[in-house]
Specification:
There is one protein chain. The protein is α+β, with helices and mostly antiparallel strands. Helices cover 35% and strands 20% of the residues. The radius of gyration is 28 Å and the shape is globular. The longest helix is centred in the N-terminal third of the chain and has 38 residues.
């Protein structure tokens, strides 16, 4: 019985130690958030450590995360970081019962890691970015040292498993309650200040009145949107548009202070533009479909919008830039975001006459923050990771031989034209459609080449031509449908497309790395 009693007392003591570690970690994060609100939200320890983890994660693992968790991948990462910190807090809390300084030192170590991660970020703005991690770690270490002292004062010699005295327990509970309240207050103040820090950006966006385009997009042709239940909407609402990027904290940029700098190799006249200067230029409005290179065959990372912006080739020509085919010395355009992201586009593609733009509007409103406000870049026909820089602030002209952008350093291809693809939207996989005639329908895309034909195959039968909706332009996706008279049983439905150059979509199945997925999309249904 005595052994059981000793075990219970030891277990209770360790449980309180674990609580002290969790409270220390909670306090450290709350104080760090408060300090980050005074420095900048992107300098918070969870954000900088998460960003560093993303940067160092192998491309295959990132691809798995996007495939598995979709647009929630960053939430999963942040929750994972918090879970790991919680477990380490428990461990350090128990350690501190026997080695108070050792436990506190462990907390300080994580502050050093956070500070190093902050200073290593591509958007780091100096030593101040390390302050949130340092301040949080110092406070957390002090809290752990204090709470561990409350548990060990008046207790039996370390390692005996004796229960701390009643007064010590009461002192610990009081200190723990005060710590929890103070940390919660600090975190609340930090979150409120971070919210206020974005108000200027939100106000600048709300004040924008987009001008009418000098070159308006033609009206979508009648019938571009098929009246088929279950098919994608031709124009994707802003709130439903896919988002795939590495930003754990969405940048909130004030349009009034935003600047775009164009410089580099072959730039005869470097320029810096304000947002208002872009709005004052002739704007073009275009229907363009975007696709992410992480989109698996049949995947959801594609969307269509009507964009408003400035022709990018006009700005480049204004700065004296020439395409390589016209004697230009730069063959790569590197776009830099305010969060340090770098994307590299072929200068030839940007300046070959296609509607490459710096967009300021999306579906009739200023860009949403999630999609790059105040300005983002778009180049039809190229996957987003080499063309669609959000929150852009700089364009540097250089060469592919002299500079590798973010994704190229991580083994993705330097050049990435969008592959011809078709997707079945309806019926869904494993559906049980009914009726004498079942409409098989979906979308096909080959941006900047257009879609000329879509074919459907039932099981191992012949390819049959589907009906095509009118095509808006060669930079948009195209809807298709096929009336199928099913026979009872299970059936495999497969689709393929032919683009405007006559190239038939390949059957060869490839994953997204290094330059986009390929293969035919198919679904199995039972009738």
């Amino acid at each position: 019985m005595r052994a059981v009693s000793t075990f219970r007392k030891s277990l209770a003591r360790n449980a309180l130690g674990a609580v002290s570690g969790l409270l220390a970690g909670y306090t450290a994060l709350a104080v760090a958030e408060l300090v980050a609100s005074l420095v900048r939200p992107q300098a918070g320890p969870v954000t900088v450590v998460g960003g560093a983890a993303i940067d160092r994660t192998p491309a295959a693992v990132k691809d798995f995360a996007i495939r598995t968790f979709g647009e929630n991948d960053k939430v999963v990462l942040q929750l994972g970081i918090l879970a790991v910190l919680g477990l380490l807090g428990v461990f350090l809390g128990i350690v501190s019962l026997r080695h108070r300084r050792g436990g506190a030192a462990g907390v300080l170590l994580f502050g050093v890691i956070g500070a190093a991660a902050a200073l290593s970020r591509p958007d780091a703005q100096g030593i101040a970015d390390a302050l949130p991690s340092v301040a949080g770690a110092l406070t957390g270490a002090a809290v752990l040292h204090l709470l561990a002292g409350k548990l060990t004062s008046g207790s039996s010699p370390a390692g005996t498993g004796a229960d701390p005295g009643g007064s010590s327990r009461r002192g610990f509970l009081t200190a723990a309650a005060v710590t929890a309240l103070a940390a919660t207050g600090a975190g609340a103040v930090g979150r409120a200040l971070i919210g206020r820090s974005g108000q200027g950006a939100a106000a600048s966006r709300a004040a924008i009145k987009l001008p009418a385009p000098a070159s308006a997009a033609p009206a979508l042709p009648a019938g571009a949107q098929l009246k088929v239940e279950g098919i994608s909407t031709f124009t994707t609402a802003n709130k439903d548009f896919y988002r795939v990027d590495t930003a754990l904290v969405v940048p909130k940029v004030d349009a009034d202070t935003w600047r775009l700098r164009i410089r580099g190799k072959g730039v005869a006249r470097p320029r810096t533009y304000t947002f208002q200067e872009l709005l004052n230029r002739p704007l073009i409005e275009r229907d363009i479909t975007l696709t992410c290179v992480s989109n698996e065959v049949g995947g959801p990372y594609i969307g269509h919008a009507r964009w408003l912006g400035v022709r990018l080739d006009d700005l480049l020509k204004e700065c004296g830039v020439k395409a390589p085919s016209r004697g230009g010395s730069a063959d790569q355009l590197v776009a830099r975001s305010v969060d340090g992201m770098t994307l590299g586009s072929p200068v030839e593609d940007v300046m070959d006459g296609r509607d490459a733009i710096l967009a300021v509007g999306m579906n009739g409103e200023p860009l949403p923050f999630d999609h790059g406000f105040p300005v983002r870049m778009l180049v039809p026909g190229l996957y987003g990771y080499v063309s669609a820089c959000k929150w852009i602030q700089e364009i540097e002209l250089t060469t592919f031989d002299s500079y590798d952008p973010y994704w190229v350093k991580r083994k993705w291809a330097r050049k990435a034209p969008i592959k011809t693809q078709a997707r079945i939207d309806t019926p869904k996989p494993f559906a049980r459609p009914t009726g004498e005639v079942v409409t098989v329908a979906g979308v096909a895309w080959a941006q900047h080449r257009g879609i000329d034909r879509v074919e459907v195959r039932i099981d191992d039968g012949p390819w049959q031509t589907a009906d095509l909706a009118p095509q808006a332009n060669q930079d948009t996706w195209r809807q298709w449908s096929f009336p199928w008279k099913p026979t009872p049983g299970g059936h495999n439905l497969t689709v393929r497309a032919t683009d405007g150059t006559g190239q038939v979509q390949t059957e060869e199945r490839k994953r997204t790395i290094p330059d986009g997925a390929s293969g035919w999309h198919s679904v199995f249904v039972t009738t």
